[in-house]
Design goal:
The protein is mostly helical. Helix content is about 65%, strand content about 0%. The longest helix has 30 residues.
Length: about 260
C-alpha cells in the first residue's frame, strides 16, 4: 500500500527541487492550510495595485466590446466557466484521493510516513491532493488581476513543492526502498494517462471523503455562480460562508477526534 501529495512546473525551479533546495519544514507542513490561505489572500490582494481581473484585461487588450458575435460579457462568462471546470476537477481529484485515506490524515498537522497508499489516484500520481491544489489555483486565478495570477500559480507551486520535498524525505526515511520504487514508477505531480501500479485492493471511503472535501465543492459552486452572474460578491458570500459554517467546524471535529484517537491515520 502507498501514501499522498503533489508537485511540478518550470525549468530552474525544478532543477532546484532535484537538488533538494525546495524541501519544506515541519512548521510549514503543520500550518500548511494557513500558508495556502495566505497565498490566496496575497494573490487577490494584488487588486490593490490593479483593480482589473486578468480576463477583463485580456479582453481589453484584444479590443473586445459588448457588441458583435462574441460580446465581452459572453466571452468572460466562457472563460470563467473554464476556470470553474478546473475548480470542479480539483474538488473531484481531492475527493478521490481522500477516499483512499482518512480525513484525519489529510487534515492532520503531523505528516504520516508509516504507510504508502497505492490505490485510486495514487496509481497515476504520487500526490493527487497537491495536484488538486494546483488545479484550484489555476481555476481561481482567472478572478485575479495579472499580478495576482502570477502570485497564485507560482506561489502555490512553490509551496506545494516544499511540502512534497518534506514528505518525500519522511517517506524515504520510513519506507526506504519501497518508497524509492514507488517514486520511480509513479509521477510526482502531473498524472500519468495510465495507472503505473496494479490495484492494491484498498476500498475507498466515499462518505468521509465527501465530508472532508465539502468546502472544495462549495468553492466550485461559488465559481459556477460567478461564471453565470459575474458578481464577485456572491462568490465571496458563498466561499466565506462555507468557510465559517462548514470548514472550521469540521476542522475542530477532526482535531478532537485525533486527540481522542492519536494512533489513527
Amino acid at each position: 500500500m502507498y501514501n499522498h501529495k503533489e508537485n511540478g512546473i518550470i525549468g530552474c525551479l525544478s532543477a532546484a527541487g532535484r537538488k533538494g533546495n525546495l524541501r519544506g519544514t515541519e512548521f510549514e507542513f503543520r500550518h500548511r492550510f494557513w500558508f495556502i490561505v495566505l497565498i490566496f489572500l496575497v494573490g487577490f490582494g494584488c487588486y490593490g495595485f490593479e483593480p482589473e481581473n486578468v480576463v477583463a484585461w485580456l479582453l481589453r487588450l484584444a479590443g473586445h466590446s459588448n457588441t458583435g458575435l462574441f460580446p465581452a460579457a459572453s466571452t468572460a462568462r466562457a472563460a470563467f466557466a473554464a476556470g470553474a471546470a478546473f475548480v470542479g476537477i480539483a474538488a473531484g481529484v481531492r475527493t478521490w484521493g481522500t477516499a483512499y485515506l482518512n480525513t484525519e490524515v489529510v487534515r492532520d498537522r503531523i505528516a504520516h510516513g508509516e504507510r504508502l497508499v497505492a490505490d485510486g489516484p495514487y496509481r497515476y500520481v504520487r500526490n493527487p491532493l497537491y495536484f488538486g491544489n494546483m488545479l484550484l489555483a489555476l481555476g481561481l486565478c482567472l478572478m485575479a488581476n495579472p499580478i495576482g495570477v502570477m502570485v497564485l500559480v507560482a506561489g502555490m507551486w512553490f509551496f506545494v513543492r516544499r511540502l512534497i520535498g518534506y514528505e518525500e524525505a519522511l517517506l524515504l526515511k520510513t519506507q526506504g526502498a519501497t518508497y524509492e520504487s514507488f517514486r520511480e514508477r509513479v509521477p510526482r505531480l502531473w498524472p500519468a494517462l495510465k495507472p503505473r501500479l496494479p490495484a492494491g485492493g484498498r476500498q475507498p471511503r466515499w462518505g468521509q471523503a465527501w465530508l472532508g472535501e465539502g468546502w472544495m465543492w462549495v468553492i466550485f459552486l461559488g465559481s459556477v455562480i460567478f461564471a453565470v452572474t459575474l458578481d464577485i460578491k456572491l462568490f465571496e458570500y458563498v466561499v466565506w460562508g462555507a468557510f465559517i459554517v462548514i470548514y472550521l467546524p469540521l476542522r475542530l471535529l477532526t482535531k478532537r477526534h485525533a486527540q481522542r484517537s492519536p494512533s489513527d491515520g
